Amino acid sequence: METKIRLHYMDLLKLTAMVCVCALHFPWAGDMAFAPQMEPLPALRRFFFAFNACAVPLFMMVNVALLLEGAFDPKKHYRNLFRLFFQYLFWRGLSIIII
Asked: What is the dihedral of CA 19, 21, 22, 28, to 10 degrees?
């Protein structure tokens, strides 16, 4: 039986990318309406926004690298993809009914 090697740095990269994506969707540093003058807080907000802007490509690259690392089973991949799609449709429909 072959043991699979865990790449901890990839897990750390994925976690960092997930936190940055969440920070893009929920602006923890405040809104992006900057003051015209360069005050320290708006400059810090710009830095965080620019840092988080690389999160989505980083997240995609890490997921593809993890997907291509092992043996690729198209049946399993498509089964998981369809399962995720139907879960999305279920929760989307439920939220539309509730709202």
From this structure: 90
Q: pLDDT tier at 34 (50, 70, 90 boundaries)? A: very low
What are the phi and psi torsion angles at 50 (to 5°)?
Answer: -65, -40
Q: Largest alpha-carbon pair distance within the chain?
A: 63
Q: What does the alpha-carbon distance between residue 48 and residue 29 come to, in Å, rounded to a whole number?
A: 8
Alpha helices in the chain, H assignment, sequence order: 8-25, 40-52, 55-69, 74-98
Tokens of 19: 């936190």
Token digits for 54? Answer: 């690389």
CA dist 39 → 48, 49, 69, 82 (Å):
15, 16, 45, 48
Kindly report, residue by residue over 69-89, the tens digit of the pLDDT.
Answer: 777 778 888 998 899 999 999
What global pTM score does this model have?
0.54
